[in-house]
Amino acid sequence: MCGIIxxxxxxxxxxxxxDALRRMEYRGYDSAGIAxxxxxxxxxxxxxxxxxxxxxxxxxxxxxDANLGIGHTRWATHGAPSDANAHPHVSANGRVALIxxxxxxxxxxxxxxxxxEGVPFKxxxxxEVAAQMLGREVERGASLADALRAVSRRLEGAFTLVAVDAxxxxxxxxxxxxxxxxVGVGEGEMFVASDVAxxxxxxxxxxxxxxxxxxxxxxxxxxxxxxxxxxxxxxPYHVDWDLSAAExxxxxxxxRKEIHEQPQAVADTLLGRFDADRRLTLDEVRIxxxxxxxxxxxxxxxxxTAFYAGLVAKYAIEHWTRVPCEVEIASxxxxxxxxxxxxxxxxxxxxxxETADTLMAVRHAREQGAKVIAICNTNGSTIPxxxxxxxxxxxxxxxxxxxxxxxxTQVAACYLxxxxxxxxxxxxxxxxxxxxxxxxxxxxxxxxxxxxxxxxVLDLAAELVDSKTVLFLGRHVGYPxxxxxxxxxxxxxxxxxxxxxxxxxxxxxxxxxxxxxxxFVIVPPQGRDQLHDKVVSNIQEVRARGARxxxxxxxxxxxxxxxxxxxxxxxxxxxxxQPLLATVPLQVFACELATLLGHDADQPxxxxxxxxxx
Length: 614
Ligand code: AGP
What we know:
The chain is of the alpha/beta class. About 35% of the residues lie in helices and about 25% in strands. Bound molecules: 2-deoxy-2-amino glucitol-6-phosphate (AGP).
């Protein structure tokens, strides 16, 4: 996600800001910029690409240093990574400069309102809307803090906003909803940032801002209110992490941090998906609804974890749209001469958007006349650029090589795509889609619940640290979850692990089962009785042969208790959505086991984050 820093104090702000942006480089970004406020008003510089581009720009065209400023590293969501889309955004009247992290869901209607008033826009971002709204409020005579409160009340979605006023060289204001904001309290200087890594070299005294709060900051202090102006209080704390821990949000690995970011990441994937008429929309669609109605087959193409997300998607898409859906490993796709026609919809899934195998599949599919929709996390990457439509997962950069939040958000995006197709093709009524969306929107809180109960899984990893083989079993959507659980263990714990469809076990793999072999089993919710009961029988089969059964099962399901050596409880969810919950303990288990075995969980041997060769 974007990196945010604001500074006010005696130091030259330019260096403080650029140093802070460097400290936040680990978050991943595709452009950077700063704005300073001095007696002559706002001066800004912003550049696409790495920080070094911004530094070169500042060296070639210096801007006058000041004691107040804001800085930003952008991870593109709305609009490609470009100079114009980089932050800060300065309002058309020149009064306000603003930086933003998050997604403003209702930006389109707000933008239309401003455009109707004649406000010119310079970027394609949702963020510029907030800058223009603030500029308009301030010009009408509101203080910057009042203006930010008023604007924040009108925004929907997730945002951290930091703004400065050209006419005030001593104040910065910031607000937050569903996106982090922390204040750094120094000696005669103050900071606001998206995380403490940005200011840790200056101060370790921090104040965490609450939901829907605005903070007004000067060099000598800060004042916090809610969006209505009622005084509230942030939560002061002392930061005792070193820099490397600070970058990882206090976690030992980026992977662990990303596992814990999943409630927010999934919520962000689901944000802003409805238009004014409450109809689902995708990010960029260059395929008409009429064309989508003619589709007679869907082929999902992806690699690794993204392929497993596709396997989950198959169940949901076929169930909701009744269109046959195949899932194919991208590196196999074009070599088998797949049957692709103008009525085939190819869906690619890729976190990086640069995976060569998947990209080649996109090209092959388009050559055959198919339409291609990309589900991707990286805005402006090659796969979405070469596709006919894009659905971004908005998970923020994933740094750990082993995909975690990438997977969960891909699965969430696949559900959105399935529902979108059902809407377009009329295979589900609007109220049915709304009911499923409501359940989807309840999932982040349930994922958090799974994470809150992780201690049991950490203890289990310690207990199983000497295992040589681990098996994972599941049926229906539990099967891809089993595959993903096994892949995580192979990747980072270098442990032999296999995922199987639970029913397939007796056709061969059950010969692997021996005394005390750990076998994870994902049990479907009780509503699907046949499915559920079959899995319960499978647990008994392996247990009878000496396996140590670790059973992931929903709360309230007591039927499996006699056959489970370890019970991992999951919040209740419908069968199709259960992978969003069941995958999480398996990720935690793999990360912990890798840690206990002394492996680097973020950069496992022989693996690269983005595989750009076939
Ligand atoms: C998962 O943990 C992986 N590291 C790997 O399988 C990955 O999912 C695969 O290479 C696809 O990458 P992509 O999503 O960037 O296309």
